[in-house]
Amino acid sequence: MGIDYEAIRFWDAYSVAEDIRLDIEENPEKESFEKYFMPSRAEIKAILKAPLRWTLLHQFIKDRYLERRIWGFEHHRKDMLDLVAVEYQTILEGYGINHGFPKINIDASDFNNYEENEMQELVNQLRELIPIEQIAHETFQLLFSNRKFLKKFNQLVAGYIRYLKKSEYPDILKRDGVLYRKTLPGWAKRGIFYRDKGRCIQCSRDLTGVIVTGEEVHYDHIVPLAVGGTNDPGNFQLLCRRCNLSKGVNTFTSEIYPTYWSLHLEK
Question: 260: buried, middle or exposed (CB in 10 Å: 19+, 13-18, 0-12)?
């Protein structure tokens, strides 16, 4: 069982992850997120059909980043394009992206030499260079490790799935509000197994087979399909056979994680 390694900068991911966490766990604005998860959108329907590497959470992060940090940012600062350009340049520098654009100094005495249309063109070019999918994937790395967040996220999604009608989406729904069950591909199982460190997240039973053999590894839907859960990789966790069979159609996860070391042990 292998695991992928790739360079991750986490430059903008921490602040984006906190924004997403607040959106899902606290939703301070009490807004509806229905538009982000409806299968009337082709990209959402594809994700709901079968487990994909680009998950529902990836798509949600990307949509919210575009909506709030790009379009919202530019809308509220449409009369201050210099600040927009500086912000975009800062993001690009953080990701090591430099295409020779002039560094904008908002205190520079010659700033007024920029015509408005020239500044808008610069902002447009800088925006196109922002690695939005990379930022979404790095943010996903942080949030995927937080099962409490994943439970909330998948409960939110399930709240919309439950109202879908099979007559409208016969290719993805087994019956009204219930998606067809799909088999997890190997890459998804590996990711979930390594995230949960090869242990049952409920009772911490070792499922690696290194020390104790014969234990069954169960990939459990955090939010069951029967109550609107999805086959998205972000809706799975590792359970032993006993814990999975006792779960039934309940929705639960745990906040138990292996730490790098404990502060409470001397050795």
Answer: exposed
Q: How far is CA 65 from the centre of its chain?
A: 11
In degrees and rounded to multiples of 5, residue 230 shows phi and psi of -115, 170
Letter for the amino acid at 72? G
Domain boundaries, the chain: 6-144, 176-267
What residues contact 122, with CB distance under 8 A and at least 6 apart? 85, 101, 102, 104, 114
Largest CA distance in the chain: 73
Q: Tell me how far apart the alpha carbons of residues 57 and 141 are, in angstroms, rounded to a whole number.
A: 10
User: Which residues neighbour 225 within 8 Å (Cβ) at sequence distance 6 or greater?
Assistant: 174, 178, 179, 181, 231
For residue 115, count CB atoms less than 10 angstroms from its CB and return exposed for 0-12, middle for 13-18, buried for 19 or more: exposed
- pLDDT for 109: 46
Coil, strand or helix: which one is 4? coil
What's the distance, Cα to Cα, between the start and end of the chain in Å? 31
pLDDT averaged per 10 residues, the chain (length 267): 69 90 87 94 97 97 90 76 85 83 58 70 88 94 96 96 97 98 96 94 89 83 97 97 89 88 76
Residues paired with residue 236 on neighbouring β-strands, in sequence order: 221
CATH fold label, 176-267: DNA Binding (I), subunit A (1.10.30)
Give the pLDDT confidence score for residue 110 in this predicted structure.
Answer: 46
